[in-house]
Amino acid sequence: MTTTEQNIDQILIPILEKVSDPEIPVLSIMDMGVVRSAVIENNIVKVEITPTYSGCPAMDVIGDDIKVALKKAGYESKIDLILHPAWTTDWITPRGRKALEDYGIAAPLNAEADKDVLLNGKRLVKCTNCGSTNTRLVSQFGSTACKAQFQCDDCQEPFDYFKCLK
Amino acid sequence: MKNENLYNYILGIADNSLILGQRLGELTGHGPSLETDIACTNISLDLFGQVRSYFQYAAKIAGDERTEDDIAMLRKEREYKNVLLVEQPNTNFAYTLGRQFLFDVYHLAFLKELQKSADLTLSAIANKCIKEVSYHERFSSDWVKRLGDGTEESRAKMQEAINDLWTYTDELFHQTEADKTMVAEGIGVDVTKLKEAYYKNVSDLLLESTLEVPESKYFQKGGKQGIHTEHLGYLLSDLQYMQRTYPNMEW
Fold first, then answer.
1. CA–CA distance, A58 with A54 (Å, rounded to integer)
2. InterPro entries, from UniProt (chain B) (predicted)?
């Protein structure tokens, strides 16, 4: 297994897909890319999850939610929090990115464009309401550790942008 | 304890983040604007998250009944190893951001080196933290520029903050006994080697911000040995209040 690959037992995928990020309920933890491995060993499911941000308060809840979901499916489980390899926004799946956008959170740009919008005032983030890129940064930090605040200058909608983490 | 040097080394790193995180947390609901308030507390949350990773590891090394919470909440003032810089108060927004900038530039350079540590847990933590700290450094640098190259008043305040805090910067590059042992084992970062680049980077940004680089060669030290400025005691009484008043309470 290379460092960025996931090792997840096929049979567990439908169960884990039903667990969502408590702060972004439309987003499954599988689409978020925080589940790094889930394997059945001696009737116990061993799950490894990795935090998006070190201080992310959602991690404890996600761990508990996984336990409950697996229990309902008839499995006991053990959850471990791992730090390596460190989570990156590249692990959010295309379906996850769409779910974010539908929910009103602009999905992360690539690292270079991210720097341009957060530091150099470039207008590249697409408004989640009207689709215009005539948007500006309001604050580099937003309602949770992973987001920045933006506003659209065409439709005036304020919205969150999921910062690129690489 | 089997590896006391490693334990002390981890505390030396983590205490900086803990105390700075607590200082920034004081701004919850008190920031100069909603956005900066949220930014400072977001940075605080990142730092506390990092502290948890370090303290969980330290508790494992201690190998007794000590938990991450005990390490964070139940030590006495003299047992905290943070540098004096991070315990300085939020005198005004220029001090808060000046302090943040002077620490972030160091923090980022330090984590870059810690990623190469022979200790795999420390290198994994560094690898995680560095992504967050890059954002902190951008934020604080940006504000030093905005205030430095801003109005006459904002420039004067930023300059005053930098001048006052400058005296605490040299300590960042002092080595403790635990440092020396850990450097020799390929685990720790040789902070003395970060000094030159640090002052160059900081000076470049100050000049870009139309600020003057302080020339004072008088520096304060002691934090790494547990000898703190008077400010730390007050901060700790806030930080430790719940654990001291209701021992063993948990969320």
1. 10
2. Aromatic_CoA_ox/epox, Ferritin-like, Ferritin-like_SF, PaaA_PaaC, PaaC
Q: Of B39, B46, B127, which has the smallest distance from its Cβ to A84's Cβ?
A: B127
In order of A95, A111, A117, the CA distances from A124 in angstroms are 21, 12, 7
> Is-contact A36 A50, C-beta < 8 A?
yes
- What's at A111, amino acid-wise? A
To which H or E segment does residue A20 belong? strand A20-21
Supply the pTM of this predicted model. 0.91
For the domain made up of B4-245, give the CATH fold.
Ferritin (1.20.1260)
Largest CA distance in chain A: 57
CB-CB: which of B36, B124, B139 is closest to A83?
B124
Could you tell me the domains of chain A? 7-91 (3.30.300.130), 104-162 (no CATH)
Tokens, residue A35: 């589940």
Helix (H), strand (E) at residue B109: helix B93-114
Estimate to the nearest angstrom the gap between the alpha carbon of B108 and the chain centroid: 11
Question: What are the pLDDT digits (tens) for B59-112?
Answer: 999 999 999 999 999 999 999 999 999 999 999 999 999 999 999 999 999 999
Helix (H, G, I), strand (E, B) or coil at A148: strand
Chain B residues with CB under 8 Å of A139 CB are 35-36, 38-39
ipTM above 0.85, yes or no: no
CA distance B219 to B228: 14
Length of chain A: 166
Do residues A48 and A60 touch, judged by C-beta distance below 8 A? no
What is the C-alpha separation between A127 and B141, in angstroms, rounded? 27
Beta-bridge mates of residue A28: A20
